[in-house]
Amino acid sequence: MFDRRQFILAGTALLALAAAPVASLAQDAKPVSGGVLTWGVETDPATLNPQLNGQDKTKLLLRNAYESLLARTADGGYVPWLASGYEISKDGKTYTFKLRSDVTFTDGQKFDAKAVVANFEKLRDPAYSTSVSAGPVSRIAELKAVDDHTVSFTLKAIYAPFLDYVAGLEILSPAAFSSSQIKSGGPEIAGTGPFILKRYVKGQEIQFEKNPAYAWAPSTAAHQGPAYLDQVTYRFLPESSVRTGALTSGQLDVIEGISGNDAALFKENPDFTYRTALNTGTPYSLFLNVTWGPTQDVKVRKALLASLDIDKVLQAVYRGERTRAWGITSPIDPQFYDKSIEKTYGADAEIANGLLDDAGWKDRDAEGFRVKDGKRLTIEVVQAQATVRDQRDVLLQALQAQARQVAGIDLAINYVDAGTYTERRKTGEFGSIANSNTPTDAIDIEYHYLPLDKGGTINYSRASAPELAAWLSEAASTLDQKKRFEIYTKLQRFAIVEEAYAIPLYEPEDQIAAASHVKGISFRPFKQLPESSYDIWKSE
To answer: Under 8 Å CB-to-CB from 230, ≥6 apart: which residues?
Structure first.
């Protein structure tokens, strides 16, 4: 039997519309259809397959073409999208989705229950999805198409984050899985979105054209029917100053990723609009490896944590335009962020140096770095080149200088390509990895703090304390949000203050600046990543 209180009908989605943050059209009488938009973006996708792409900064591109079963509201709720409704069984283990019957993939294939099943079956295959197969999809005991427009998922046990995961996965046309482009993504990989991926030139641009048949936007969108724009081209411009210059000179209509130094050019400037939104998920953090090098010693990890005055560094690098992070999840997460951790650690040179003395790192070399047994106290920070954005290179250099000056710690920053990054993660031969991620409903906490062999696919600290697995198992097996909050609060204090598995730096955010003739720009409700170009139009 199903719990009718958890049943969502398409009609009830209208109730969420008023609460959803959509673009304001008050100053313009009516949106205009037609035209092309050129958008300067910071990051070139590692893959165009949205199911395999873990780069948050490229989601604004892929969301144009690929969609999910449900959409999120600002308060964290769900409204229909490709699914018209869903039910959760009373025992909390079976999720049944009713699907829309009027949706078609842009390659002409019909969207139905078999298509949804094909997507999730593929994700369970490690040959396709690699580490993804060890995540939430591994919790599925049975997956079936009940009829043409009904699909059900039965879990092995209650798993509280499952709804967030299953509702948010981008659904691909089944034909895509036999394409040679399936891993890299590309025009052959069809979705159901308001735009169709037409052209991609790596390192240069990606182009989308309007899907004229589109008619199934969620109620969180600002309009229904096809997109306003005929075409959207995103140009890859990794340098912030280049993007800024191209917008101010009229070469681009919109840019994202604005440096702290450049924000003042657009704020309060009538020729432009400027919007920002904090992301959800895990802050950009230094994850410290507990299995290799000096960071195996908790005293060294805690010393580095104490040596850094992160507020001062962020102010110097971003001119007050970024938000300090303190915990294991975003400060905008209303369900799981415990702000009592704020100001409980860091910026204490006496503690930092005392811990290092106790750990045996008492001597210094000619350059002022601490040494023990003839070896320098070096912590290698591995940063994937693909995730170097938002002046993170400058931020790491500032932290490097501070750690040396305050405590004699050598932070050796090493930028590596994708292949090297994968290999280093596999071998575990690194001192620290710097990264962030946006999944909600504590899925990201699991990814970072479950042991590697239990689903911690991005457990960069390689922590395996039994408390972590026990707490996360307990939190995932209950639907009681209050209890889950209490568990994550314990885990947060243990992971940051007691064990220093990670050093949270700042909460990633997205910044969008646009010429004043561009209307309808918005951020997604709840997750707050930049929305697709579906609601955007030009008044010129």
So the answer is: 34, 35, 36, 209, 210
